[in-house]
Amino acid sequence: MRITLPILSLLLLPFAYLVHSHFDIGPQGLQPAATTLSIRQNEAAGTIEVFRKGESKPILTQVAKADFRPYLHPIVAPDGKGLLTEYSPGHHKHQTGIYWGFTRVNGRDYFHHPEGNYWRKKSATVLVGEGETVQWQTVYDLLDSTGTAVLTETQHWTMREHEGKYLLDLEWNGEAQTDVTIGKYDYGGLFVRMPWKQGIKGEVINAARQRNEKAEGQRAMWTDVGMQVEGRNDLVHIAVFEHPSNKGYPNYWRVDGQLGIGPAKARMADWTIKKGMSETIKYQLYVYTGELNDLELNKAFGEYSGN
Fold first, then answer.
1. Average pLDDT in the 200-216 region?
2. Which is nearest to 72 in space by CA: 224, 192, 197?
3. Residue 18: pLDDT over 70
4. Is the N or C terminus of the chain more exposed, i.e. has fewer CB atoms within 10 Å?
């Protein structure tokens, strides 16, 4: 049987649609198409949720309540199997998924105190609500014991999904409302709490290949934490990249006994922000599944850092 050109074209239409939907054709040939994301904000609930376009369940939730510090939880693994974050685990009740909290701001502890007499929301705003990249920001005052703002922090988040990985850029800005000293301490700042439990398969590895407790207190360009969370046979990972523009780069890292990780800028000494001045600190969270691959992580870090 002979198939004419018009009939052949009709037969190929479904295949052409599949290729167009899942791949981009560029200078390097067929490449996986970037995922279109969208944001829904529920001001009453104090949430900003990120969805893949056309899906009904969020892949990431930003919680931004009026009387509690902002945090990310839950985050669903890129392949949909399992949750990456944990809220207020029994071993560290104050830890809230992925969050920012200093332990010593003019002597006051915002790491262990997420409640409202320490934090006051000024705004939570969706900046880019749909596209290959979405953006949002939260603005909070850190309060002293009298309820007066000492530091105003802005967290500007940018998210995209590429080749089955989440890339979450954070630009943190702290504006001093009075002279501010962040006191020397072993941890404080950005922190990542994955759902650890006794006996879980998991590991922390940094850019120098130091593992677990050997990565504690070490300087590193990036640190990766991976765990076999419920519903998985392999590991899911959150790698945190530090941007070279940060003061003190590469900074020291906290790695706790339950594989919680966070860069700790104040680990070596106090640092200050004078009244009316501000400081910006940048990180990227690189979220993926499977085995850690040094070459891929270093390549991704290079793309983020510009090196």
1. 97
2. 192
3. no
4. N
User: What pTM, to 2 d.p., does this model score?
Assistant: 0.89
List all residues 6 or more positions away from 286 whose beta carbon is below 8 Å from its beta carbon.
Answer: 165, 166, 167, 237, 238, 239, 240, 241, 297, 300, 301, 304
Q: How would residue 13 be classed by pLDDT, with cut points 50, 70 and 90? A: very low
Distance CA 303, CA 307 (A): 7
- Looking from the CA of 62 toward its CB, the CA atoms found within 13 Å total 29
* Tokens encoding 2: 């002979």
Give the tens place of pLDDT for each residue, 112-145: 999 989 999 999 999 999 999 999 999 999 999 9
242 within 8 A of 249, measured Cβ to Cβ = yes
- DSSP letter assigned to residue 217: T
Separation of alpha carbons 271 and 280, rounded Å? 13
DSSP 266: G
Measured from the Cβ of residue 146, the count of other Cβ atoms closer than 10 Å reads 5
Residues 6+ apart with CB under 8 A from 165: 78, 286, 287, 288
Q: Which residues pair with 190 in a beta bridge?
A: 100
Closest CA to 172 of 148, 190, 191, 146: 190
Amino acid occupying residue 212 = N
CB half-sphere exposure, 272, CA atoms < 13 A: 5
